[in-house]
């Protein structure tokens, strides 16, 4: 069966952090629908967070709470 997905898009660091924040209270498939991205994109972002240590502190040099205040 052929893929029916749309064009590829690039997510910013801020968008990825928003997705990670949303994953704390929602299921990956719900987050994918909310952000209009694929389920596996959400899963990959979560996996990359675990493997690479992506966090507010490592990316922005500030705490999670401070980072949300600047968005």
TrEMBL record:
This is HTH psq-type domain-containing protein. The lineage of its organism: Eukaryota, Metazoa, Spiralia, Gnathifera, Rotifera.
